[in-house]
Write a structure and sequence with these properties.
The chain has about 170 residues and is mainly beta. The chain contains 2 helices and 16 strands. It has a single domain, classed as Sandwich (Jelly Rolls). It has helices at about 10-15, 85, and strands spanning about 5, 5-10, 15-20, 25, 35, 40-50, 55-60, 70, 75-85, 90-95, 95-105, 115-120, 125-130, 140-145, 155-160, 165. A hairpin with a 2-residue loop joins β1 and β2. The radius of gyration is 15 Å and the shape is globular. The two termini are about 25 Å apart.
């Protein structure tokens, strides 16, 4: 199998979105959360990266930023870091402040895609789950009962020594 950087060439052909090791959020086409019949907003995504896969959720429409960088300063957002700190823990932040954390050894893998789902309930609960369902295998959960954000769009990034391939 041919390699592109550290990733198999087949990954590029399969329409994954690429993020560089540059710590900058990027908005891609179709970066909109889905809505379940229950009113839960969610995104299921696959990521192939060594560490530090970050996804931020915004109430703002990010379509004007497609293909460019999204700055989080001055915006209300939730940020989920999967496999941060050398792939040793995952965290959830609100507006840059950490609100939940879990130890997680090896959540990400450079050679294989991993699937996760992020869900936001109407009551302000945001959660990260392993796999394709927001009903099981919860890793992180936070109830934002002060001023919940009602996110509709998301942006992704990698950094701290890792590129990433994303699909949703």
């Amino acid at each position: 199998m041919q390699m592109h950087g550290k990733f198999p060439k087949s990954i590029i052909i399969s329409q994954f979105n690429f993020t560089k090791n540059n710590k900058q959020y990027v908005a891609f086409k179709n970066c909109k959360l889905k809505k379940a019949e229950s009113g839960i907003r969610y995104i299921t995504f696959k990521i192939q990266a060594k560490n530090d896969a970050c996804i931020s959720l915004f109430a703002e429409d990010l379509r004007p930023y497609v293909g460019g960088n999204v700055l989080v300063q001055g915006k209300n957002y939730y940020e989920i870091v999967v496999g941060g700190w050398k792939n040793s823990k995952s965290v959830l932040r609100k507006d840059g402040k950490q609100v939940a954390e879990c130890k997680s050894k090896g959540e990400l893998n450079l050679k294989n895609c991993r699937t996760f789902t992020i869900a936001v309930k109407k009551n302000g609960t945001i959660s990260l789950h392993r796999g394709k369902s927001f009903k099981k295998d919860c890793m992180l959960e936070y109830l934002d009962d002060e001023e919940p954000i009602n996110p509709t769009h998301f942006a992704v990034m990698t950094g701290w020594g890792s590129d990433g391939y994303w699909k949703w």
